[in-house]
Amino acid sequence: MVNLKALRPEELQDFIVSCSLPPFRARQLIHRIYEKGAESIDDIKEFSKQLREQLSRKAYISNLKLLERQKASDGTEKFLFELEDRLSIETVLIPDDDRLTLCVSSQVGCAMGCDFCLTGTIGLKRNLRSFEIVDQVIQVSKFISYRRITNIVFMGMGEPLQNIEEVSDALLRITRLIGISKRRITLSTAGIVPNLLKLPEMAPSVNIAISLNATTDEVRNTIMPINRRYPIKMLLEACRAYPLEPRRRITFEYVLLRGVNDTIDDAKRLARMLRGIPSKVNLIPFNPYRGAKYKRPDEDRVLQFQEILVNSGITALIRKSKGAEICGACGQLAGHNEPNKPDRGTRWS
Ligand code: SAH
Ligand code: SF4
Question: Could you give the 3-state DSSP secondary structure of residue 7?
Answer without folding.
Answer: coil
